[in-house]
Hints:
Chains B, C: It is found in: Cytoplasm. The complex is a heterotetramer, with one copy of chain A, two copies of chain B and one copy of chain D. Chain A is α/β, with parallel strands linked by helices.
Amino acid sequence: MRIGVVTFPGSLDDGDAARAVRIAGGEAVRLWHGDADLHGVDAVVLPGGFSYGDALRCGAIARFAPVMETIADAARGGLPVLGICNGFQILCEAHLLPGALTRNQHLHFRNRDQYLRLESTSTAWTTSFTDGQEILIPVKNGEGCYVADQRTLDELEGEGRVVARYVRGNPNGSQRDIAAITNAAGNVVGIMPHPEHAVEALTGPSLDGLGFFTSALRHLAGTAAGGQLTGGAQR
Amino acid sequence: MARVVVDVMLKPEILDPQGQAVANALPRLGVSDVSSVRIGRRIEIEFAGEPDLDTAREIADKLLANPVIEDFSIRVDEPAGDAARMSA
Amino acid sequence: MARVVVDVMLKPEILDPQGQAVANALPRLGVSDVSSVRIGRRIEIEFAGEPDLDTAREIADKLLANPVIEDFSIRVDEPAGDAARMSA
Amino acid sequence: MTTQPDTATSGAAPSRGVPTQPPSAAPPGKPSGFAATDVLVNQFDGGPDTVERARNTPEELQPHTELGLKDDEYDRIRQILGRRPTASELAMYSIMWSEHCSYKSSKVHLRQFGEKAPKNTRMLAGIGENAGVVQISDDLAVTFKVESHNHPSFVEPYQGAATGVGGIVRDILAMGARPVAVMDPLRFGAADHPDTARVLPGVVAGIGGYGNCLGLPNIGGEIVFDPCYQGNPLINALSIGVLPVERLQHKEAAGLGNVVVLLGARTGRDGIGGVSVLASATFDEGAEQRRPSVQVGDPFMEKLLIESCLELYDAGLVVGIQDLGGAGLTCALTETAAAAGTGMRVWLERVPLREPSMSPTEILASESQERMLLIVAPEKLDEVLAVAEKWGVWATAIGEVTPSETEGLPGRLVISWNDHVVVDVPPGSLADDGPVYARPIREPADLILLQADRAETLPRPVTSDELRETVLRMIASPNLCDKTWVTEQYDRYVLGNTVLAQPEDAGVLRIDERTGLGVALSVDGNGRYARLDPYQGARLGLAEAYRNVAVTGAEPVAVTDCLNFGSPEDPAVMWQFAEAVRGLADGCQELGIPVTGGNVSFYNQTGAAAIHPTPVVGVLGILQDVARRVPMGFPPPPTADGDLLFVLGT
Ligand SMILES: Nc1ncnc2c1ncn2[C@@H]1O[C@H](COP(=O)(O)OP(=O)(O)O)[C@@H](O)[C@H]1O
């Protein structure tokens, strides 16, 4: 299975996302922001970092990169896409996910090991987890506070599209402790913390991040065999 | 000056922690009659030729403001009048 | 509205990487006649009573602007006239 | 010969051969707000001060004192040139002969590092290069160095600290390495002083803002509070990089006819007069006027600069490279030419500018960040421009390498600006032949009293209540308390190779995923010990860093240092400096590891009061198998049940 990892100018965790894909057993394919061709990948990761220096708003400019136009179309067609941190911000700016990520309430960049609770395990990126499972992965961001209007939030909750919530403390003030969400189809997931930094005992606080990448590989194997994504609503 | 100014502010219902932090610091400066502070962005767009409000509006709409959380207003820059620019 | 607006912009000689990045992105939106973009902050200070320019100036000087790299201008907010506020 | 990154996202074809500089009708340079800049901006009859004009007006008075040059230094310049210098030349000499660039007061002492250095086969580059390079396996080397950005960070904490990180990272990059981590030894005034509340959050946000955005994990540092740093905090920054041995780069501008390329951000009026004034003068009065000379950093541009340089190295497109740091183009042009012993011809009007009205002197003195100088073979130029275009950074051919001698005379650095020759100098006279001083040294008069006031005379806690109170007071003290508020603002995970970071004694990085090869790094210093005894204080700093590296399981192999002191013109400070250098050199000799590079920061004082002498020492160690690193915490039970504790040493 080939999972593309996009590099924008200013992407930083792209190498780490590619490493995580490899450790999970996939083939990582590096994609370049200026190249609209997805080179036949089966899924895409938008990595963390500061694309375009986070000028204006995080993700605001990356959204207009040639590769993003292709990815947006493919995502609407069901391509599994995982946006991590800056990637999550890009997905929101591109309107592939609802809401927005704003300045942390405490106004500081914050890097710590963070507990999350998985709340939707039927997305393309979370089937390796069990519902309600608590995991520990690093969070590191300055603008990770998830906001959306009440109706959107209620809709996300109602449709089971809140993928993960912060537990034992909310590191950035996100509304309803939201750490990760998905689109209605369950193929596009945005997550603020960094699963790619919890895939090796030597360098991470746990191996909990690996599940996101193995989920995608499992999901791809399933769809290749004719399986269907059930989406968040089926939870 | 062929300049258009776009002001982008958070929608009123969106929390503004930065503005809040400034407001909270005011009593220490001895200021007590401020009821709220909101912090947004001011973007100055310089055109090569004539200032073009329509283009500016399109830029603002697509790029400068995020409609999920922000409103914007747009105007051709009038030369500084009463407003004293201070080089602090 | 008892509101004072403070505009804070980088001094002209100071590098504005944000404005630069936005200007560089404009051709992707099909915009080619913009020669430069500068990004600053717009701060709205709401007073409980009368808007107080002197207080606002002190707040701007001490809290809102970094005098080493920024200039600010300050004015009582005139009700939106020509400038259309758009809720995009 | 410019690539214009008009948009990083578009695939626009490089627009070559476009002169970026407006024609000579440019308006005269306007003062940038910094008093000494007015002195630098020396315009005559609408044109700059040229070599020809200097020949014809030998008696013209020049403001050398205002630029920090002593009378005899000025006389030497006239002697070297056989005429008075032009305004641009004068500015260049004042910058290159400043304490910061010439090491004129420290050179005679720093020699010991070389003289006492143990035999070493690992060191591929040492003192005199941008950073020391240490071979750690058959095919890999690391380069590391610590530097100060003290004065700029006091003036403008965020940008000062941010550009401090940016500067040291470019040093590492210039050696051919990919920067892989940073560390930040910091010293502030009293924790409860109002100005500390201004400086500390700004500094921390600046270091985090720049390092995080650059994608470099922060793997350690120090935060020390002491009133002696109140008016003069110490902001030191360390960076480490990794390179394949054969990718080692050099700064020599070798190869007649090779092209001199300026890569990176456009040049603005940042920090003009910064090096010579901020870093080499006492920092008490006039801070207000100096403010505009602060530099503003753009870590996004630096990230692009890193990626483009690495791509250029790997494609073998670079003959020589030098970062632009404190002294901007002046330093980069003279050092690359002097190192190769060649001449150089530069056309200044080709330099891409942020402000078209800049004068040639300002262009030469600008400390704009995120720039590198490349020496490129002419046939490779197009490829170099294409790489720059790909990453969206400016690349401009601004000059060429000229013969090392013509008609028996050594090569010259000739710089013109719109057909006016504004500089014509032997490059070595700027880079290598600066003044050297053996400054007078005298033991501080108060030292005997200070040493007589021994710790044994302090009251001791005796009762258990007193003991309890002492312990609580100690763990609550700013120098010992938890530093999470600071370290949480730094990304320690990015790049995925951080094995140990805060709050461990040393940072540990995996260098090679295949073999498990790793390194450990620690920076330490203790100004209070050094104040009591600079010789022992420096040795203790070294020993502490050495121990911190050793306890992770690494073998310590190399040292870098940042020597933060008061004014070298004060014999007592100079004595402290001499003693500290002697102590560090002796310590390194005893431990058998070399000093590979470092930095001297003088004039750290408020009024006449110098800071404590503060040598900060970084030690690098190698772990053959990084998986065997030893963290400092006890493993949680049940793993640790029944483990025995030992105390080693005396
Ligand atoms: N305290 C020191 N110990 C060892 N080497 C030093 C020290 N201070 C400066 N050096 C070396 O002197 C050379 C010049 O230093 P510096 O001017 O800081 O380099 P750069 O040109 O990168 O700014 C460098 O090679 C540096 O490593």
